[in-house]
Amino acid sequence: MAALDPSRSADWWRDAVIYQVYPRSFADGDGDGTGDLAGVRARLPHLAELGVDAVWFTPWYASPMVDGGYDVADYRAIDPAFGTLDEAEKLIAEAADLGLRVIVDIVPNHVSDQHAWFRAALAAGPGSPERARFHFRPGRGADGELPPNDWPSQFSGDTWTRVPDGEWYLHLFTPEQPDLNWSHPDVRREHEDVLRFWFERGVAGVRIDSAALLTKDPDLRDFVEGVDPHPYIDQDEIHDVYRSWRAIADEYDGVFVGEVWLPDAERFARYLRPDELHTAFNFNFLACPWEPGRLRATIDDTLAEHAPVNAPATWVLCNHDVTRTATRYGRSETAFDFATKRFGTPTDLELGTRRARAAALLTLALPGSVYLYQGEELGLPEADIPRDRIQDPMHFRSGGTDPGRDGCRVPLPWEAESPSYGFGTGTEPWLPQPADWARYAVDRQSSDADSMLTLYRTALGLRRTLPGFGDGPLTWLPSPDGVLAFTRAHGLTCVVNLSDGPVDLPAHDELLLASGPLDPAGTLPPDTAAWLHT
User: Which residues are catalytic, by number?
Assistant: First the structure.
């Protein structure tokens, strides 16, 4: 792949395929069992050969790693487990030489309890300027023994923790992640400086974690189900923050992608107005079951949400928080919902993999940009982590009922015959790899014409070279029950068979690619997708 094409610098994000790297689990360069920047740098050619346009890194900053790096202690330092700031700068430059842009992750809702600001706030005491950067409050009850309000946690458990002097502080996630007070000018100024810090080091964009949670009801009023506005989700004041950020991004031709979970389509679209965020994750598609009617409705709704603000849709099947696609699509319930995650849920992995292959072609044929989580190109299933090896706080805060997210964060297999499948060279990986993962290794799949990796490489190559993919119109075609069929520009057609039997393909001049073999009669089998050209 050639170096970055400056002619596409203004609009590359509208139809990009962006690969998500979870650094702890991508590749271990120093042999200590934890993935790092040296490992990523050594494996960048894999991403270039895969054919993606950009790489998004989940947090690589200094952190106690209570929540996988989403508890940031210092945005201007790389966590020593991953490397150094110098290595990060080299990685950004080396990626650019391979034609890959870099997107970093920021977590503006909260910081680590080890952040200098929070440590100063604890030391300073009630009523101090240092505490004003957070949400410290006296408790309720006769002796302040009750939390200041009843807000539910984004994880399981409580949202307030009491400190020795009697005050309580807010944390929508874990107690080690105190929420920042976004009405304080220091908080806004600091994050604007952080954005400039990374844009000046050559990153192309920033992903914003929990993007709808920053601003809170000023009185921290109690939560009442069904009563709007919500006291801490999607407050109107949040848009002032993103307008100021957009002005900074525009100075550097940078882009933003927001993690925005909102059921209201109109309010979701407000985040994508021309002076705010460029794109936002499409969680409705990610959570959608493998059902033709639900998928088509989700696609239509997504495109309709984005049209009024002329923003491109984004499509994603999996990320570092949700069950792997091959596992989820093999279950009797193929939708994703955090509330229903349980140990021991059975899956038909052969069926799930067949559907994941078809879903890959469906996703890559839709208008807009695509996010591809590491290991999806290998067809990795969700791993069963022994209970004594689980590290995710979601598991512990649920009282042990939720298996957590570690199963989709297991270190990648690179070389079938190497220790830890080539992830590292020394210490056992930080999470255990399943004993049968040699078959998923990159080197083994690279030489297999029918592998998931070959399918992704071929599909991404076609998407890059043929006109009609990416941003632009979509037109549905008449099709039998259980079949999704649509055309794009320049004669491209995508057909996905979600029915129980084979279906005839529409008239075409060429079969560009299929997710699995056609039947001898040339029909498309169940749970199979095809790209056609006319």
Answer: 209, 251
